[in-house]
Specification:
The chain is an alpha/beta fold. It has 2 domains: about 270 residues, Aldehyde Dehydrogenase, Chain A, domain 1 (3-Layer(aba) Sandwich), CATH 3.40.605; about 190 residues, Aldehyde Dehydrogenase, Chain A, domain 2 (3-Layer(aba) Sandwich). It contains 14 helices and 21 strands. Strands 15-16-17-14-13-18-19 form a 7-stranded mixed beta sheet, sandwiched between helices. A 6-stranded mixed beta sheet has the order 10-9-8-11-12-20, sandwiched between helices. The chain has a 4-stranded mixed beta sheet with strand order 1-2-6-5. α2 runs antiparallel to α3 and α3 packs parallel to α4. The structure holds nicotinamide-adenine-dinucleotide (NAD).
Length: about 475
């Protein structure tokens, strides 16, 4: 492995070089599956941030990516994808240990990251403008231009694939990028720099800095040297970033939290619902922005669904991510405490704990797979993002009531409908306030389907062709032929 790790210390990928950051500061990274120390990561400070900004600007001004022939930019992205495949085994091992997720999920993350570069490599030479008719005396056309320096802040739940989700389209469009990795699990993402290095990404075009959000994260997004902000994370941090962006008026893309609901109609196949529930709320221990965190069930099949959900939760295998169990730890002691605290409020608000309800007695940060039934839609557990393996189930009697309940939070990331009735699917699907609606399969779709929220879940879209237009500015050029 290149200079990425030296003497057990993961380093920063700054303008094509592996550096230790400023003042010898480092952050300890823990293994949530054992609660033991795993590694250290060098912390970037203000000096490193300044160098990364300078290098990104210089790379953009030189036209390293922006002026590269688009078909060559496509080849560069494909080379990155190839290199990600080659580091996937080693990267997945590190990511599994630092995040607590299963080894197979960590591997999927690297593979998904490679797919983003394959996909956006395929469109790098197809970012086509329009010709606009203005009559015989004018020629008018639009061009899509990169913003310049794109600052990208990444959360800890899918650090590698989320970073790739924004980095690949930004590069395809010709932007320079500075990524700020998450404090809790920065090592797998730092390793993405190895793929960038091996693929010969122009020096300065991409930097990956390990740093504290409130420190260099805040300084990065407030910088007038940044031309665009891409933030994926929680609502409070998103709000703080929007306030910082208001100073220099920096365009921002916000991919925030969720409290997404599945609507289960009376003709739904219960096995299908339960299979979706397993991936929807227990994949990555429920630490998924688009988790199936609420399930609204028609009263006629309500008790059957609650019983099957409880059986699922009670039957999941539990273990360290390296063993590829069905249920894994959450990321940290603080995360576990927060999940337990909000879950404990459920009983007081009248909910029935059908499975789990508290942490598990074992080494590491494990929350029991938890099923809360009879949840009051106005209660805290039904309104706030828990970001853990806890699902809230509530009955309904009519389609209109189900839609009102599904839409009854501040969020609007995704939603779902389970039914065999196509007409009702369409009617309900259109009324759900969400950026994406899954029908009969939670997480249906993939890297080519647009993703993003409404309300406090944010704005702008990632994934698919749609995302590309977040990374470009439209310029209109109008030419008079009269003179
Ligand atoms: P977080 O908001 O605490 O942190 C996200 C990132 O922001 C981290 O890298 C952190 O260091 C950085 N940060 C913190 N304060 C900052 C500041 N003042 N300025 C700049 N950067 C700052 O979120 P988290 O706990 O890492 O992630 C979980 C949240 O992310 C959940 O709410 C989840 O729903 C959301 N999320 C959303 C999506 C999506 O695509 N919509 C995807 C994954 C996660």
């Amino acid at each position: 492995m290149s200079a990425f790790i030296k003497d057990g210390l993961a380093r920063n990928f700054l303008a094509g070089n592996w550096v230790e950051g400023d003042g010898g500061n480092r952050i300890a990274v823990e293994d949530p599956g054992s609660a033991e120390h795993l590694a250290h990561c060098a912390l970037a400070g203000e000096e490193s941030l300044g160098k990364a900004l300078e290098a990104a600007r210089a790379s953009f001004e030189r036209g390293d990516l922006a002026d590269m022939r688009p078909s060559d930019r496509a080849s560069l992205l494909w080379r990155i994808a190839v290199e990600i495949h080659t580091i996937a085994d080693e990267g997945a091992d590190l990511l599994c240990r630092e995040s607590g997720k299963t080894l197979s999920a960590a591997h999927e993350e690297f593979e998904e990251a490679a797919q983003y570069f394959e996909y956006y490599g395929g469109v790098a030479d197809k970012i086509e403008g329009k010709s606009i008719p203005l009559g015989p005396d004018y020629v008018d056309y639009t061009v899509y231009e990169p913003y310049g320096v794109s600052a990208q802040i990444v959360p800890w739940n899918f650090p590698v694939s989320i970073a790739a989700r924004s980095l690949a389209p930004a590069m395809a469009a010709g932007n320079s990028v500075i990524i700020k990795s998450p404090e809790l699990d920065p090592i797998g993402l730092a390793m993405l720099g190895v793929a960038l290095e091996r693929a010969d990404v122009p020096k300065g075009a991409v930097s990956i800095l390990n740093g504290i959000g409130r420190d260099i994260g805040a300084k990065l997004v407030a910088s007038s040297e940044v031309d665009q902000i891409v933030f994926t994370g929680s609502v409070p941090t998103g709000q703080a970033i929007l306030r910082a962006a208001a100073g220099p008026v920096t365009p921002s893309l916000m991919e925030l939290g969720g409290k997404s609901a599945a609507v289960v109609l009376e003709d739904a196949d219960i096995d299908t619902v339960i299979a979706s529930l397993q991936s929807g709320i227990f994949y990555n221990a429920g630490q998924v922005c688009s988790a199936m965190s609420r399930v609204l069930v028609h009263r006629s099949i309500y008790e059957d669904v609650v019983e099957c959900a409880a059986a699922l939760a009670n039957g999941l295998s539990v273990g360290h991510g390296l063993e590829n169990p069905e249920h894994t730890p959450v990321i940290s002691a603080a995360q576990l405490k927060g999940i337990e605290e909000i879950t404990s409020t459920a009983r007081q608000s009248g909910a029935r704990v059908a499975a789990g309800g508290s942490s598990l007695e074992r080494q590491g940060y494990f929350m029991a797979p938890t099923i809360l039934a009879d949840v009051d839609p106005a209660s805290r557990v039904a309104q706030e993002e828990i970001f853990g393996p806890v699902v809230c189930i509530t009955p309904f009697d009519s389609d209109a009531e189900a839609v009102a309940l599904a839409n009854g939070t501040d969020f609007g990331l995704v939603a779902g409908v389970f039914t065999k009735d196509l007409a009702r699917t369409h009617r309900i699907g259109r009324k759900l306030r969400a950026g994406q609606v899954f029908v009969n399969e939670w997480f249906a779709g993939g890297i080519s389907t647009p993703f993003g929220g409404v309300g406090k879940s944010g704005f702008g879209r990632e994934k698919g062709l749609e995302a590309l237009y977040n990374y470009v500015l439209t310029k209109n050029i109008a030419i008079s032929l009269k003179g």
